[in-house]
């Protein structure tokens, strides 16, 4: 066979071989993979996708509520309102009394006594109406106790600390974890005197809401005292009964609130007095954390307790 023919034969065989090899290679290639599908989001067992968030929020709320309850158990409302009776917001006695009350921790509300006239009976009736309105505010309010002051008060200074009053609303009145045995608001369910005049120890039947072992007194002067919400309601009821029936409380001049409160005090077994050992320098019968400052201001009512 000639060289040309051999070359042609070899070329044909080579082409045939390459075709076969290419065919075999294509058949062995891995098939194309289908496009990856997106995996569906995992759904909680309830089928509600917001369950996890809701559960977390609920848990957080429960923790907050527990913390709030725990905080409230230790840190109760530490604010108390002093209702300052006055006829003139800009008078020196009102300005000074307001500063005194704010200085010991009270929030001050000025209770304006209505003008009824210039006679003594007009002034005492005005004072009575203002105090009765304060009772209604306290009874309908949210604070457990409210405090009533006239605008001629001064802090009583003890002999040991003549330049500084030891009285504090948060320390002496409101009960919390550090003063459960000494706080005034725990000693009686209805009322207390922060200052009293001509007092005498009450020896009658105690009110069931009295803390055992608490010395109880009744006296005149309504320049500084406190009533609970229940006490305010009972004071309104008592005074209204006195107004309707003189024999109920046994007094003729029922416009004098200091006399009415003295009788109200005795009716409910006497009230505790804040710092009964502290007495006024000039008026020794004025005792308590707050006294009437008769050296600076004269009475404008002329009531029996003045």
Automatic annotation (TrEMBL):
Biased composition range(s): Low complexity: 51-60
Region (Disordered): 32-73
Signal peptide: 1-24
Alphabetical keyword list: Signal
Compositionally biased region (Polar residues): 61-73
Protein name: Uncharacterized protein
Organism expressing this protein natively: Cylindrotheca closterium
């Amino acid at each position: 066979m000639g060289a040309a023919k051999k070359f042609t034969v070899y070329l044909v065989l080579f082409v045939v071989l390459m075709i076969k090899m290419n065919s075999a290679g294509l058949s062995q290639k891995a098939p194309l993979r289908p496009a990856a599908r997106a995996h569906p989001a995992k759904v909680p067992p309830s089928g509600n996708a917001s369950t996890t968030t809701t559960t977390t929020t609920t848990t957080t709320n429960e923790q907050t509520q527990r913390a709030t309850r725990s905080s409230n158990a230790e840190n109760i409302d530490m604010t108390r309102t002093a209702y300052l009776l006055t006829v003139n917001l800009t008078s020196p006695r009102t300005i000074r009394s307001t500063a005194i009350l704010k200085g010991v921790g009270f929030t001050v509300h000025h209770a304006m006594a209505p003008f009824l006239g210039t006679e003594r009976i007009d002034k005492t009736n005005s004072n009575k109406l203002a105090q009765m309105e304060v009772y209604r505010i306290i009874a309908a309010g949210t604070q457990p106790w409210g405090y009533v002051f006239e605008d001629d008060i001064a802090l009583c200074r003890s002999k040991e600390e003549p330049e500084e009053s030891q009285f504090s609303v948060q320390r002496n009145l409101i009960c919390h974890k550090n003063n459960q045995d000494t706080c005034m608001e725990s000693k009686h369910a209805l009322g207390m005197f922060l200052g009293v005049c001509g007092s005498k120890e009450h020896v009658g039947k105690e009110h069931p809401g009295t803390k055992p072992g608490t010395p109880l007194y009744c006296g005149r002067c309504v320049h500084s005292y406190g009533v609970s919400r229940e006490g305010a309601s009972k004071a309104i009821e008592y005074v209204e009964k006195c107004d309707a029936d003189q024999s109920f409380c046994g007094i003729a001049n029922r416009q004098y609130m200091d006399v009415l409160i003295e009788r109200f005090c005795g009716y409910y077994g006497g009230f505790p007095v804040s710092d009964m050992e502290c007495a006024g320098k000039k008026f020794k019968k004025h005792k308590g954390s707050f006294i009437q400052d008769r050296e600076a201001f004269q009475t404008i009512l002329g009531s029996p307790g003045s």
